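Consider the tokenized backbone below.
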């Protein structure tokens, strides 16, 4: 029974805590618009370097900056560090072994026995252990981490040349943060866009680019009986290995009566009978359209459930196939490409260009997933019509053209669509993060 005592007790308890939000009168606004009243936001902290985005590029940038002597804040949208590695259940890493940071991550994963395919450049890892590796590295370096903390606004100095303050919105309300240098590792270039930087997106006038993917973890009855369908078993490294594997898997899906949205469906062996399932593509989903992202995520999860159910009905090696987890976020291949002091071009790829200020080399070939479902059925992955040569990525592509103290790492750096289709993988992101984190800690630019 709800008594007067309960009411008074609840009222007093609520009064003991400050409110984050309060009702107030609002100024008149134009029809279809809401005029948000001005308010003062507490400045919580000021540090040397703020890194936005705690994925592969962000964890590398933050740890490198802290180890170089800077005070560092790392802001992450999700509930763990690692980004697409962890919240996205990527499980597979391409083009690694480029920096000391890469090799340290490999050593730490191996200490947890959390890798398969003992290859330093390309391997499968267990996402839960990757969370621990990233979080341990941040803690040991002295990085101050905030999870569940999206950045929602960014403000420049009066002359517009420097970024001075960012605003986050979380369970603590709106809070302001200041730093000498900022690094956008959001993947989608969110921070730079909020700061008003110029950018390009996608490969079409509408900004559409490569599709996004929702990954999943599944439990199979006996992984040793499924080697013909697995893309990271020793047989994969033979000529045609991966192609044979995904084609065999596609035939099984078709035998089950389903047509996947991705025509190179892939199973990666993760641990014992645990596998990663990559069967989904979500086409024409812009990273700045929350409704499109939400709709695509729900549709992708439904497709994964449908496919697992259909495979189960086949019996045999698919008997008792069990869906363990779907990713918390779509894995976006394309986002904003922020304008930098140098823009990588297709000519740089064709020439295998080198630079005096190079931070790493992209060795992963041009990899363009089809822009729509019909193209996917004809040419699931294209190579851009150019001959690929490994090319270097200059520091200038990691430096904003518009704001002197804003840097980027990961797939939001400055480049055209074709080179982006090579350097977008997480091996490049880690190497870029390590370089720009150290630079931010040591520069007086």
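A designed sequence for it:
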């Amino acid at each position: 029974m709800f008594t007067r005592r309960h009411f008074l007790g609840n009222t007093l308890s609520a009064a003991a805590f400050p409110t984050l939000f309060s009702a107030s009168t609002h100024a008149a606004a134009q029809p279809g618009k809401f005029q948000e009243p001005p308010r003062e936001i507490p400045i919580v902290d000021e540090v040397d370097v703020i890194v936005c985005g705690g994925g592969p590029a962000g964890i590398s940038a933050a740890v490198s900056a802290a180890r170089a002597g800077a005070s560092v804040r790392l802001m992450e949208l999700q509930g763990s560090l690692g980004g697409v590695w962890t919240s996205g259940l990527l499980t597979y890493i391409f083009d690694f072994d480029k920096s000391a940071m890469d090799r340290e991550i490999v050593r730490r994963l191996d200490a947890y026995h959390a890798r398969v395919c003992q290859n330093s450049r390309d391997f499968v890892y267990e996402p839960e252990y990757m969370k621990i590796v990233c979080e341990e590295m941040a803690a040991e370096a002295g990085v101050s981490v905030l999870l569940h903390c999206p950045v929602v606004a960014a403000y420049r100095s009066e002359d517009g040349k420097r970024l001075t303050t960012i605003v986050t919105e979380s369970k603590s309300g709106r809070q302001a943060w200041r730093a000498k240098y900022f690094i956008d590792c959001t993947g989608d270039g969110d921070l730079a866009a909020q700061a008003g930087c110029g950018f390009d997106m996608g490969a079409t006038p509408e900004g559409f680019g490569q599709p996004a993917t929702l990954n999943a973890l599944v439990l199979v009855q006996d992984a040793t009986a499924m080697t013909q369908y697995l893309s990271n078993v020793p047989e994969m490294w033979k000529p045609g290995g991966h192609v044979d594997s995904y084609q065999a898997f596609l035939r099984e899906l078709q035998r089950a009566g389903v047509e996947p949205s991705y025509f190179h469906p892939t199973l990666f062996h993760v641990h014992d009978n645990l596998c990663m399932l990559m069967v989904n593509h979500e086409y024409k989903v812009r990273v700045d359209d929350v409704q499109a992202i939400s709709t695509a995520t729900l549709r992708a999860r439904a497709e994964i459930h449908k496919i697992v159910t259909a495979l189960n009905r086949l019996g045999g090696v698919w008997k008792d196939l069990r869906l363990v987890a779907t990713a918390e976020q779509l894995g976006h291949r394309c986002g904003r490409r922020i304008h930098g002091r140098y823009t990588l071009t297709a000519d740089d790829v064709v020439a295998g260009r080198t630079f005096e200020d190079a931070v790493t080399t992209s060795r992963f070939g041009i990899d363009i997933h089809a822009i729509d479902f019909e193209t996917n059925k004809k040419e699931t992955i294209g190579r851009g019509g150019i001959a690929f040569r490994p090319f270097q990525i200059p520091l200038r592509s990691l430096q904003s053209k518009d704001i002197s103290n804003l840097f980027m790492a990961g797939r939001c750096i400055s480049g055209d669509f074709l080179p982006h289709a090579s350097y977008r993988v997480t091996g490049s992101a880690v190497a870029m993060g390590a370089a720009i984190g150290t630079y931010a800690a040591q520069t007086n630019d």
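The longest strand covers residues 173-184.
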